[in-house]
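### Sample
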Amino acid sequence: MIIGLTGGIASGKSTVSRHFEALGVPVIDADRIARQVVEPGQPALADIVEAFGANVLHEDGTLNRTALGAHIFQDPDARARLGAITHPRIAQEMARQSAAAFEHGHPWVIYDAALIVENGLYKAFDSLIVVACSPETQLQRLMARDGISEKQALARIHSQMPLREKLEVADFVIDNDQSLDHTRRQVDDLFETIDARIRQRGSARPTDD
C-alpha cells in the first residue's frame, strides 16, 4: 500500500513525515529523489544542460538551482520541459524504493511530495494525507523559516495550489495548527488506523484449503 503525504508550503509536512519514519514506516521523499536524479553524472543533469545551457551549472559541475529557477520561474513551457526531464526519473526511483520496501516486509510506505495533487499522482495511491494549518500560521512559519518578508512569503504561498483544494481530495487530514505534541498524537492515531486497515485486508484474503 502506498499512502501519499502532502500539504502547503510551511504547513508542517516534513514534521509529519519524520514522525512516520520514527514509527517505522518507510518514507519516500520526492524532494530527496529530485536532488539525486540531477547529481553530476546523472543523465537528467546532462539533459537539463542541453535544454537550458551550461550556465545552469556551478563551476564544480553541480546544478545551479538559482540559475535554473531564473529560466523556469515565469515560463510555463520551460517548467514543462524540466518536468519532462525529471518526472519520469523521479517516478522510476519512487517505484524502485517502494518495491524494495515491500520486499523487505513493509506493508505500506509513505510517498512525501509537495505536488501530488497538482500533478494528479494522488489518484494512483491508496490514500492521501494532507497536512494543514491556518493561513496565518502558514505565513508566520514561512517568514520565520526562510527569513523572508511578508510580501515574499505571500508570493510563495500564492504560487501554489490553495490548500483548501488539496483538502477536498484528502482521505486523512493532520491539523498542524497547534503544538508539536498535538500533531504527533494525530500521526500516532493515523498510524494505528492505517495499520488496522492493512491487517483487515490481510485477514479478508481467501486461503487455500
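The first strand starts at residue 2 and ends at 7. This sample (Dephospho-CoA kinase) is used throughout the tutorial notebook.
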